[in-house]
Input
Amino acid sequence: MTPEPDTHDPEPLDVAAAELALGLLDGEERAAALRRVLAEPAFAAEVERWRLYFAQLFDLWPEAEAPEGLIDRIDESLGGPKPSRTRRAPWPLIAVAMSALAAVLLVVIALRPTPTPLPAPVPQVQEGSRTLLIAALGDAKSPVAAAYHPENGLMRIAAAPTVPAARVAQLWAIGGDGVPHPLGLLTAAGTELRLAAADRARLVPGTTLAISVEPTGGSPTGLPTGPVVATGALSAV
Amino acid sequence: MLIATGSEDRAAFRELYHLTSAKLFGVVLRICGDTQAAEDVLHDVYLIIWRRAGAWEPGRASPITWLATIARNRAIDWRRAQKVRRAGPIDDASDIPDTAPDAESELVAAGERHSLRHCLEELEPRQGEAIRTAFFDGMTYADYAEARGVPLGTAKSWIRRGLARLKECLDRDA
Output
């Protein structure tokens, strides 16, 4: 194939990361680029950067109303427990902490427990006591989501900040006394902590959660010894 | 408790659908080019989201970006599986506006990342158009060359030079 006269660039353009991110490649070229993603962390990071750049264009994408009734068909194909039709979760209230969309996505994706075979139905708890406390720790750009169920004392953390080798992220609760109390250690993939009674009592709307970077095994002193990398206040949903 | 949680999750899932389905249907409809196929793909997309195939990490990408990316990828997969090429001339993404409809997403985009849109405007029109078309119509080099009726090498050359200039612009802004 004869290129146009002005295509003789002084150096070959390495835009493979952008090409892959945009989806221009197919066949062997695509396979070669995917091999580079696996072999070269810098290349993989570049691809991710391009993906985020191109994703800005999603803002421009015109919306189209989805076919009526599709959500019901999707719901049916999920099986399992039916949603309670009468009560819509008041998720938009979380907008003070993060967007409503981020909040529902957290519930659906990040905080949903691993699907388990369901036991026989148990009586549902009273509506009024079904409070959930959530917090977004860190800045708006990269919050770590936390959700706490006062009923069963379960604290779920969607992710953990990146920590150096031989360090671990530790979660703290800071209540009215201003003293940090350790709640547990976090793993990058997400953590579920069942809290002791004393810790449960500390977790009320307004309690600050904080994550610090500690030596493996957690702070040896019972108080944060490393940098605090994220904080956020619990609020009721 | 598990049941109660499951039920709450389903309510949240419906809310998620309510908040996102118009955007995601817009994405798949454009790429699939057929309402019935788009509906099937969208169904599939929400099942993927429910099954958490692919993890959303708060902070890496905004929620809608992550969801829209899944939708775009699934729609492209579907189209390539059909081995369907668009018949006739493509609409070259000219019906996609240059600016976001609402200022809020504009602000979010500006705050989070350097503006790709700004840099696209600096390109030669042909290069910018090709890159936008690749994105909005989910086209490979081969798709684009065929749709434009130009040799593959020519299409690659246009787009590669556009991407290289885009890279310069983005690096400069960074």
Notes: Helices of chain B lie at 2-32, 35-51, 63-82, 103-112, 116-122, 125-137, 141-148, 152-173. The domain at 88-174 of chain B is CATH 1.10.10.10 (Arc Repressor Mutant, subunit A). The radius of gyration of chain B is 18 Å.
